[in-house]
């Protein structure tokens, strides 16, 4: 996968014997024709021209997406691949975006690619939305799969293999981020500032994702607060207007549903050290990733 795969990366993938490479652009085809020695299975990523109801930065299937080929360009790529002696075109790929809260865009995207011919594989990407807030109601996994399979049966060959690539919906609710309250400031709003923020959770500033939070040992109720991070950006507001029960300096604040794209997008902005990861089950806890140290931050500097 990727819209800008380098020679090195494709060489690494081919050498490692990856099953399938997803072609995003014509340069991918040129590169693979040079790199592949035997035979390599590929899919072509199609822009279905569907804009799902999600944050624009989370949308990848609309007409002007940087990912994939338009339907007309895809026809050209498909013809080229069909004539290739090294690249075996197994089928089509699409990925509409992320945090998609209804099944309709998935249905439309399958309809959109059906006109490209019959293939043995269709990879329909990921994208299923997740319940971050009390108000969110994403489709259930059953509703999502029923919609996908019913549409695939209607528009795609009955023997085709249908793949999906779920990410967020599998892991988001597996994690809770724990922060410590550093300071509470009462001005025009009341700010509860914590020892983290946009370095460990970019979902808010990148996608405007809304989360819920609670004081870890006083769950529910309370006044409305602005839960803010510690970074030098006014946009580093983790949750604006969240009810917290009598928060105090030193309290632990729990922010649930942080298992997707928080750790993977964590960064060192303002010299933030990335947090540890602790697996918990049935009262047992085990650290699986240690907290980053200041030495880690300096470890790549040269004399
Ligand atoms: C090509 C592709 N497939 C699947 C996914 C997973 O999407 P989600 O986490 O929304 O299920 C992504 C996410 O970036 C992606 O780029």
UniProtKB/TrEMBL annotation:
Its cofactor is pyridoxal 5'-phosphate. Residues 1-172 form the Orn/DAP/Arg decarboxylase 2 N-terminal domain. InterPro entries: Ala_racemase/Decarboxylase_C, DAP_deCOOHase_LysA, De-COase2_N, Orn/DAP/Arg_de-COase, PLP-binding_barrel. Signal peptide: none annotated. Pfam families: Orn_Arg_deC_N. One of its GO terms (molecular function) is diaminopimelate decarboxylase activity. The keyword Cell division does not apply. The keyword Cell inner membrane does not apply. Keywords: Amino-acid biosynthesis, Decarboxylase, Lyase, Lysine biosynthesis, Pyridoxal phosphate. It comes from the Bacteria. GO terms for biological process: lysine biosynthetic process via diaminopimelate. This is Diaminopimelate decarboxylase. It comes from Actinobacteria bacterium BACL2 MAG-120813-bin23.
């Amino acid at each position: 996968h990727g819209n800008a795969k380098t020679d090195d990366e494709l060489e690494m993938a081919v050498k490692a014997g990856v099953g399938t490479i997803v072609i995003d652009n014509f340069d991918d085809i040129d590169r693979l024709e040079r790199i592949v020695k035997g035979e390599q299975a590929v899919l072509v990523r199609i822009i279905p021209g569907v804009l799902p109801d999600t944050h624009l930065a989370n949308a990848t299937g609309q007409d002007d997406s940087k990912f994939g080929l338009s339907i007309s360009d895809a026809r050209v790529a498909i013809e080229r691949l069909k004539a290739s002696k090294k690249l075996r075109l197994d089928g089509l790929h699409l990925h509409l975006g992320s945090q998609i809260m209804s099944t309709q865009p998935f249905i439309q995207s399958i309809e959109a690619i059906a006109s490209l011919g019959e293939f043995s594989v269709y990879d329909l990407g990921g994208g299923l939305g997740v319940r971050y807030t009390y108000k969110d109601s994403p489709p259930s996994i059953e509703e999502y799969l029923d919609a996908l399979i019913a549409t695939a049966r209607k528009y795609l060959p009955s023997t085709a293999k249908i793949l999906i690539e779920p990410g967020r919906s599998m892991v988001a609710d597996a994690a809770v981020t724990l922060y410590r309250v550093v300071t509470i400031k009462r001005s025009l709003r009341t700010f509860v500032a914590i020892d983290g923020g946009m370095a460990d959770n970019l979902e808010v500033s990148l996608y405007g994702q809304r989360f819920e939070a609670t004081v870890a040992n006083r769950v529910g109720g309370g006044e409305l607060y602005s839960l803010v991070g510690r970074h030098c950006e006014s946009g580093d507001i983790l949750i604006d207007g969240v009810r917290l029960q009598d928060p105090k300096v030193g309290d632990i604040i729990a922010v649930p549903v942080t298992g997707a794209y928080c750790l993977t997008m964590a960064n060192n902005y303002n010299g933030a050290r990335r947090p540890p990861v602790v697996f918990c089950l049935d009262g047992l806890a085990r650290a699986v990733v240690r907290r980053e140290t200041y030495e880690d931050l300096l470890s790549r500097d040269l004399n």
